[in-house]
Amino acid sequence: MGKAARNIIATTVLAGLVYAGATGTLGQIAHNPNNIYNDRSLTITDEEKDLLISNVENSIGYDVSSEKEDDYLLLNAILVNNNLSDEEKITFFRFGDMFYDNPYLDREKTYNNLRKVKIDYTSMRGFNDRNVMGNYDYKENVIRIYDNSDSIIGHEIIHCIYNIKPSFLDKYFSEGMTELLYNEYFEENPFLEVNSYPLEISAVKMLCDVCGSDIVLEAFSKSNMRPIINELANYSSKKEAKDKLYLLDELMTEYEEKGTVTHYVEYEEILDYLENIISDKYGTGGFEHNSFKYNRKLFSCVFSDNPLEDYLITIGNEGIGEKAYFSEKLKNDYYYFDIEPCNYTFSMNNKVYAKN
Ligand SMILES: [Zn+2]
Q: Which residue range forms the structural domain that includes residue 35?
């Protein structure tokens, strides 16, 4: 990160602190969150808003489009966080587009997390965490980093932004969404899902194809699978929708614990169930169905003896499926599903992140 940008932050943090005072805007947020974040709009004076915008823009070093004004308060929370270094603040600022693209984000909760989150690079790993590269401790609001890299910090920042209790969402869903969001917003090749959780990402993409990514984002943001269940129930019954999602979670839990699964005939039913719904909804042979079939093929590697190895071979054979689900910028170019031939040789690090 350039020195100039860091100096700018150092001079603007103090001005930003005006808003962190107990009687300032923060006090209003704490007492009446609906006034602040209702319909994504800010209820602060024009002067407060102008000062806030100039603080954030100065610290980022570029103009942020005026449509994003409603999310300046989230960026300001980062600005006034004394636990973060200037360099870390700049890393957090890069998530502005993600705030803006998500109407379901619980902005009050995110605001409170961002104001206080710390990054800890020094903690000792537990014995069972040998393969863990980082984690987010949602109780302490601390990101612990064991293997320092942009993608690991970025993944954990997304956990912090959403602050989802691990027990509230199916683990495969929480991790697949987190990693997919990181890849769409930050990876150079956003469709090459080979960093971490590739099968979890395939599962999430199948749910997006069937239910619509908007509904999936709502479920993730609200820490509740109900929007997905309700959508599936429109094409089956609520009981069947719940049962199939439960089965999918059971399958992924077995995969995560043992590295491979048994009973796959029973588990295949989930995929048939989802494919029937997508055929009902969109017919067969369209881009939605093609995207689903591709993701189903990748996901089905979970049934092989070496799922990750098989996954890489399958991408090599099938090519890279290109479709954006969440990033509005990416959707401009990749809204429809397409397959790009794959000329890469892969190596997968085979490590996992901690359980949230
Ligand atoms: Zn994670």
A: 3-116
